[in-house]
Amino acid sequence: MEIIEKPIVTEKFSALSSRTIHTGKKGNKKGRPDTRGTKTLAQFAFVVNPNANKIQIKEAVEQLYNVTVVAVNTMKYAGKVKSRMTKAGYIVGKTKTYKKAVVTLKEGDNIDFYSNI
Predict the structure, then answer these.
(1) Whole-prediction pTM value?
(2) Residue 18 CA from chain centroid, whole number
(3) Which of 3, 5, 57, 99 could bond to 47 as cystine, CB 3.0-4.6 Å?
(4) How far apart are CA 96 and CA 13, in angstroms?
(5) Structural domain spans, the chain
């Protein structure tokens, strides 16, 4: 069973691959130390097999790209019914149902989808 079908390379997920977030809390007058900092999240999205679970997705990404996966978030998309009017009549069809996985990598790891071009 093929776990990863294809990567999703869009503007949204390209921005997610190098997103910087702020961590920690600001210090106060009562003595709490200032623990603020920044952290770069490396998140990448893949279309995966609808029967695959998070553990299988994690193992497949680690094996395929030689990175360390910290977290896997999955979401299922149901196919939409599409219809159009043509000269031959009314045509009804359906788009594909698929499952998407957003994988968060360890800080410092990265996946380059364009290296094989």
Answers:
(1) 0.77
(2) 12
(3) 5
(4) 21
(5) 4-24+36-105
Residue whose C-alpha is closest to residue 44's, from 64, 24, 23: 64
Is 3.30.70.330 the CATH number for 4-24+36-105? yes
Q: Which residues pair with 44 in a beta bridge?
A: 103
Q: Note the helical H segments in the chain.
A: 11-16, 54-65
Within 13 Å of residue 46, how many CA atoms lie on the same side as its CB?
A: 23
How confident is the prediction along the chain (117 residues), in pLDDT tens digits per residue?
799 999 998 888 888 777 777 777 776 777 767 667 777 778 999 999 999 999 999 999 999 999 999 999 999 999 999 999 999 899 999 999 999 999 999 988 888 877 766
